[in-house]
Structures are given as structure tokens and as C-alpha cells.
Amino acid sequence: SWTPDSFVESTVAELKAKLGNDKVIMGLSGGVDSTVAAVLLHKAIGDRLHCIFVDNGLLRKNEFEDVLDSYKHMGLNIKGVNAKDLFYKELEGLTDPEKKRKAIGKVFIDVFDAESHKVEDAKWLGQGTIYPDVIESVSVKGPSATIKSHHNVGGLPDFMKLKVVEPLNTLFKDEVRRVGKSMGIDAKLLGRHPFPGPGLGIRILGDVTAEKVRILQEVDHIFIKGLRDKGLYDDVWQAGAMLLPVQSVGVMGDERTYESVVALRAVSSRDGMTADWVHLPYDFLAEVSNNIINQVKGVNRVVYDISSKPPATIEWE
Ligand code: XMP
């Protein structure tokens, strides 16, 4: 019968046989799937697995440093690439959600392609594809998905012409977590909420600037830390904050303010296809709202999103 340990043992043996002395390159996102896939590959071929983690400037507060650190602790051969400015430049002035997604995807491909050329003789592209991704062949959005369109070779970036190795493509999400746990991956990492490839880029409605990213990172950090501190994080499938392209009037001391509105969203879901808003306790929402307005300059109003999917999506863009 299937156990995480037996899966690890047989998969590592298969990967060794399949990959021999070949090199594999892989883009990591900090997400559960790519991390577990990378650790499996690393068990099989050690430092012949070359991992790349791109800072697109749209990650959560401190996420790039934190995740890079945990990857290094796991012994992965990983290179962090700071490409923030390239992303901000490409996003400049863009307000249409699809154009923003495309811009983020394009820069990611460019950066990843350039990095992959620095690994000589790489033969394989590692991916964290899981079984639902395979059966759904639904157009998953974003960079990770763009990579998945490797089937139509020709006119593609060079790394896409590599052979693809996907050690998790028979597993469901809960099995991936169990495999990760059996290999000793940190529970905190395995329990992380899903986070979209385009990151805060699609949670800042309208055009994206470095300053807006900074504001939203602070807001998001207060919300997520609050969920963790109150033991609510694991009851929620996914949570985050949106920076709205709206200013509203407020009052601070004797002063009139005219500042940004943020929306908080927390949903329960099984697979992200449908979702319900979580009935977070009022006193928790009150505390988070106070903390955000008191601590984040530029924000004077907080609202809570009470829409389910469908008809609303989880992300606002
Ligand atoms: P929606 O907004 O479509 O989101 O209800 C469903 C789930 O997918 C995530 N999502 C993305 N993930 N790239 C990703 O890797 C994307 O472009 C993207 N857009 C949405 C979303 O966070 C939620 O978990």
C-alpha cells in the first residue's frame, strides 16, 4: 500500500535511473509543490539539481530572504536572483489585469532563461506539477503555468526545450504534504497558504509601484501574523490583502486624511475552484484593522471581503 516513505524510496530510485549524471534546473517559488519536488530531486542527484529562486519584487514581506534561507538549510543548491527592478519596469503604467499577468510572466521567463544558460549542459527542467494540474489541463495562470506550456516547442526560450521531470505528477496535494513531512521538510513551510505566481502584482489593483508594494506588504504582514498569533492560520485555506485604487476621507487627530483603502480576504476551500469567505471573529478583525490603520502610513480604511466563489474569484484581478 502507498506510504510516503515507500513513495520517496521508489521515486528517488527511479529518478536516479532516469537522470544518471544529467543536470536538472528548476525554478522554485517557495510553494509546497516545487519545494517537495526539489527535495526529492536533490535526494536523487544532489548538487546536479540547480535551483533558481527569483525575487520579482511582488513577494510577501521578507519572503525572499526567509524562503531562500530555508532552502539553504535544506541543503538545496539554490541561487537567489534579485530581479525586482526588471519587474517594476515592465509593470510601469499597466492597469489591465491580464496585461499585468502577461508582463510578470514575460519577465519571469526572460530572467529564468538567462539564469538557466549559466548552468552548462543542463538536460532537464524540474517541475512541481501535481496530479490535479495534469488532469485539469485547465489554463493555470501565471509564470508557473507558462512554463507548463512546454509541449509546443519552437520559438520558445531555450530552457523550455529541456526534457521535463515531474516527480509529483501522480500525487494529490495532501499526499505531497505527507511526502514532504516524511522527508523532514518544516511543517510551517508545508502548511503555507497558496500564493499566486504574480504575487502582490495582482493584489494591487491598478498600476503597481514599489511604494504600493511596500504598503501592501506591511498590511499583509499584520493580517497574516495576526492569523498565526491567534491560531487561525491553519483554519483558513488562503488569506491576503488587496490594495484598492481608491482613496477615502478619514480623520486622524484634528487632521482630515485622504488615503488608501485595503480589503482583507480569507477563504475556505478544498481546491481553490470554489471558496467561501471565512467568518473570522469580529474582535480579531477589529484588532487587525486597528493595527493596520495605526501602523501603516497611507492607509486609513480597512474592509473585509464577504464574497464567495463563484461568482467572485479568490483574487481580485
Ligand atoms: P481565483 O482568483 O481564480 O484563484 O479564484 C484560485 C486560486 O489560484 C490562485 N491564482 C494563481 N496562482 N498564478 C498562480 O500560480 C496565477 O496567476 C494565479 N491567479 C490566481 C489563487 O491565489 C487561488 O489560490
Descriptive notes:
One of its GO terms (cellular component) is cytosol. Pathway: Purine metabolism; GMP biosynthesis; GMP from XMP (L-Gln route): step 1/1. It catalyses: XMP + L-glutamine + ATP + H2O = GMP + L-glutamate + AMP + diphosphate + 2 H(+). The protein has eleven helices and nine strands. The chain has helices at 4-19, 32-45, 63-73, 84-91, 97-116, 131-136, 143-148, 173-182, 187-190, 210-229, 282-295, and strands at 23-28, 49-55, 78-82, 122-126, 163-165, 238-252, 255-268, 276-277, 299-304. The radius of gyration is 20 Å and the shape is globular. The protein is an alpha/beta fold. Helix content is 41%, strand content 20%. The chain has two domains: 4-190, HUPs (Rossmann fold, 3-Layer(aba) Sandwich); 203-304, 2-Layer Sandwich (GMP Synthetase, Chain A, domain 3), CATH 3.30.300. The model is unreliable at 138-152 (pLDDT under 50). It has a five-stranded parallel β-sheet, with helices on both faces. Strands 6, 7, 8 and 9 form a four-stranded mixed β-sheet that branches. Xanthosine-5'-monophosphate is lined by residues 101, 141-142, 144, 194, 196-198, 238, 272, 309, 313-315.
